[in-house]
Automatic annotation (TrEMBL):
Gene3D superfamilies cross-referenced by the UniProt entry: q2cbj1_9rhob like domain
Organism: Thalassococcus lentus
Name assigned to this protein: Phytanoyl-CoA dioxygenase family protein
Assigned keywords, A-Z: Dioxygenase, Oxidoreductase
An example molecular function term from Gene Ontology annotations: dioxygenase activity
Any single Pfam family the record assigns to this protein: PhyH
Length: 257
């Protein structure tokens, strides 16, 4: 599998793969168990019941396996050797997504609704003023759909080529600081300015996918979740995707390369 499109387009949808399909089949039962767990629902069901965030919610092993089934396939071969993997996120959206999240301001909800809550993973909002810091430099973003859903059922959204704009802006913002201090550098203004450029210059594309396929998103690409359109449908009434975002051990400098 050729990963060069990650650097040019910012995302890849890998075709159906028997290894990925087997992993998905093994993950479906545990996923339903997670969604039925009252404690998990209390912790992760957000946006007035329209989004189950599910960070580290699936019981996967550090090698990515689940219920004794290995994580394998062409896309996994292309990413190998894999770093130790966190427990997979279980991201589930329901009809009506998005509704306002608890504590979300009107402006932030408008951004979620109109801009798909577009973000770069690993740049987190900290403190009461929501200042932005690079706290979780990821090696890659790998999405594995767990059920069939129509293309309008809150698909992943990616701004094509946004990774180049983000890389340049963040590199410039960090250049005047010692690399050992980079995790503590406030990149809010640079990040927000780069987002505005992305919205002006990059195409917004939706990336629906089916079980057995895999979606790779460049770790610096701006991406989000589209609203659930009227008339959209999904097997079991919700769109479910498992995500792996392992931390890049080499840190921010490698993340920017």
């Amino acid at each position: 599998m050729d990963l060069r499109q990650l650097e040019t387009r910012g995302w890849i949808r890998a075709p159906q793969d028997a290894g990925i399909a087997a992993w998905v089949a093994a993950a479906q039962g545990p996923a339903q168990d997670v969604l039925a767990d009252p404690d998990m629902r209390a912790k992760w069901l957000q946006c007035q019941g329209t989004w189950f965030v599910g960070v580290d919610a699936l019981p996967t092993e550090p090698n990515g396996s689940i219920a004794g089934t290995a994580l394998k396939g062409d896309v996994i071969d292309a990413l190998s050797p894999l770093p130790p993997l966190h427990r997979a996120q279980l991201s589930v959206t329901y009809p009506g997504y998005p509704k306002p999240r608890a504590g979300e301001s009107d402006a932030n909800f408008a951004y979620r609704l109109k801009r798909d809550a577009a973000h770069v993973d690993g740049i987190t909002a900290e403190g009461p003023d929501k200042r932005r810091f690079i706290t979780e430099p990821h090696a890659f973003i790998l999405g594995l759909p767990l059920n069939d859903a129509s293309p309008e059922a809150s698909p992943l959204v990616v701004w094509e080529g946004s990774q180049t704009i983000m890389r340049e802006a963040l590199t410039e913002a960090l250049a005047q600081h010692d690399p050992k201090h980079w995790p503590n550098v406030d990149v809010t203004e640079a990040y927000q300015a780069a987002r505005r450029v992305v919205f002006e210059q990059c195409d917004r594309v939706t990336v629906p996918a089916r079980p057995g396929e895999a979606v790779l998103v460049h770790r610096l690409a701006l991406h989000g979740i589209a609203p659930w359109k009227e008339g959209a449908s999904a097997q079991g009434s919700a769109r479910m995707i498992a995500y792996f975002r392992p931390i890049l051990a080499a840190g921010i400098a490698a993340w920017l390369r």
